[in-house]
Amino acid sequence: MSAMRFIATLILPVLILSAAAAPPASVPVVQEPPPLEAVSPSQKLDKLFAQLKRLRDPSAAQGVVAEIWGVWNISGSATVDLMLRSADAAAGKQEYAAALDYLDEAIALKPDYAESWNKRATLHFKTGNYERSMADIAQVLAREPRHFGALSGMAAILEDAGRDAAALAIWERVIDLYPANRDAQGHVRTLSEKLDGNKT
Fold first, then answer.
1. Given this model, what pLDDT does residue 199 score?
2. Dihedral sign for Cα atoms in the order 108, 111, 116, 122
3. Which of 106, 112, 109 is nearest to 120 (CA)?
4. Helix intervals (H) in 73-147
């Protein structure tokens, strides 16, 4: 064997090993995608209300309505959540004074949370205190103007007071937000017929 061939047999395995150990130049570096931005409750509600407005089938709309209530029911405070659960339990046992105390406390702890006001408005409505119910409904709508539950309560109080034209306008607002709401549709139909009859 010549000296050149002997040297080549020694160097060639070293070159092969070196090439195998080096990273291939042509392989791109894979970077992790940036984290997705969290969707805020407000953005989620905007999307859900847009979906609800397009739906005409009550069964299909119910799923979206449940999601909306799911967002509304997130207070962000464990203490407020506890107060609201306690209020619901007390109201379920017709212990209305205790339920009201819990709701007062929840509102004091987090006054910007609309659902505490809505629950208190509902309690006042249930106990026949319409004036206080309307005052709390105003607080709900100041925080969430699309709250079809609070709007429905307002329309029912106006209708009970004989203010049919005002009630009709609120029920129409409910339908604008929630077109598949059969209850609101029925009230609009009845009140429209009644008001038209009064004109003749």
1. 74
2. positive
3. 106
4. 78-92, 96-109, 114-126, 130-143
